[in-house]
Amino acid sequence: MASNLRRAGWPHWPRLTRSFSGKCRCAMSKRKEHIRHSRAITRGPRWRALRMQALERDGWACVQCGTHKRLECDHVHPVRTHPELAYTLSNLQILCGACHTRKTRIEVGHKPLTPKRQQWRDLLRDMQRNPSSIGEKTC
Predict the structure, then answer these.
(1) What is the pLDDT along the chain (139 residues), one digit of tens a residue?
(2) Which residue from 8, 95, 100, 121 has the fewest beta carbons nearer than 10 Å?
(3) What pTM, to 2 d.p., does this model score?
(4) Can you say how many angstroms the Cα of residue 17 is from the centroid of all Cα atoms in its chain?
């Protein structure tokens, strides 16, 4: 069975996709079923101008965690279900990559992270942001 598997393209190259016969389980099957309807919307000068308005409105920071890194413009109501709100400023919010991924995972149908796993991720993120605090001893 392993001989008829093909590898996915970058950046998912370590994960195996479905074989040509469709017998292999895919680690990203829910994501593949989720079609990105906003792709046609997020191209062009109209979108760029609207994105800049949203960034300025939200203060160039993630509305959930407040970080200024890896900012993405997200539709509050997905374009898939609300195409009429695609170019509405009130339907846009600025999220960092991590918060946007968390929101998209839930929209796609994945379960939210358990509180223990989320706490672990938050700890790792804090350690990456403040590397000087690693290994400090408190007395």
Answers:
(1) 444 444 544 554 445 555 455 555 454 555 555 566 677 788 889 999 999 999 999 999 999 989 999 999 999 998 888 889 999 999 999 999 989 988 888 887 888 788 998 899 889 888 888 877 655 555 5
(2) 121
(3) 0.58
(4) 20
